[in-house]
Each structure stands twice: as C-alpha cells, then as structure tokens.
Amino acid sequence: MLQINATHINYFHVCHRKLWLFCNGINMEHTSDLVSDGKLLHAVSYPQRAEKRKEIEISASIDENIVLNGKIDFFDAVGKVIHETKRSDKIEIAHEWQVKYYIWLFELNNIAGVKGIIEYPKLRINSDISLTEGDKRYLEEVVNMINKIRINEVCPPLINSKICRNCSYHDLCYADEI
Q1: What's phi and psi for 58, nearest 5 deg?
Q2: DSSP string, 15-49
C-alpha cells in the first residue's frame, strides 16, 4: 500500500531526486540546521497557540491502494483555517501545494470550507491558500506521479539549482563532486 504525506507533495514540487531518495528510505532532514531552525521558529513564533495546541493528523484513502496522511502545524477548528509556518518563501510553490494537499484531505473527509494560511514570521507576511476543482485533479495526478518516481529503479538526475545549496540532501547528491 502506498502511503503519501505532505512531505512527498512538498518534495515533488522542489526536486524529484529528493523525493525519490525520501521515498526509498533515505531521510536527511535530521541532519539539517535549517530544518531545526524551522521547527524552532514554529514553536516560538506564535506563543499564544502553545496553550491551545491544535496540531492534528488527518488521513484519507483515494482508493484501496493509496493512503494520504497529513500532520498540520495548527488548525483553527472554529474558523476552519489551516496555519502552516515556514521560515522562508524561497520554495513557496511547494508550500502552497502542501497546504492545498491538507485542504484536500479535509474535503476527502467531508469537511468543506477549509482554507489555509502560510505564515512567514521572519518575513512578516502571510499567504492565503484555497483549493479549486482543478487543484484537486492536479493533486490526484501528483499522487500518481509520486508513485511512478517512487517505484523507478533509477534515481532522478540532479537539478543543480540554487536551492540545492541549502538542501539537507546536498552532501549526498553532490558526494562525487567533493
């Protein structure tokens, strides 16, 4: 059975190589200072949320072979708003699709009217996110493409982008060039 989570959706929009490595059990997030910084930022940026912690996990199945999972930073159940905290907007498209994925999970669980906000506390900006019918169809395609990447026996090539320098997989991907 294929298990998809928001990390898969995010990585799909950032780098297929990173996604393939992650799908095949190679997780480098624990080695990243930037990931640690992001977790700290999430914990300290909105102290008023600590007392009413609303981090939730949500799951849905789109067929008998695919289970979708999500772990949401903060969910305001009264306003039906997902709050996702990020340290930088450098890969904003991946953040947007991650939040759209969460909204989709709610809709698959028959909870309508959910919206999202991506919060960039260091930049002092927020980005409102909603989900369209076209977005839902695209997410279904993305799930299928993630599975194709996952089962491929060959790791996708380097993208050799500026974002690679700060990636937790950088040393692994560029090991032959050191």
Answers
A1: -140, 145
A2: -HHHHHHHHTT---GGG-HHHHHHHHHHHHH-GGG
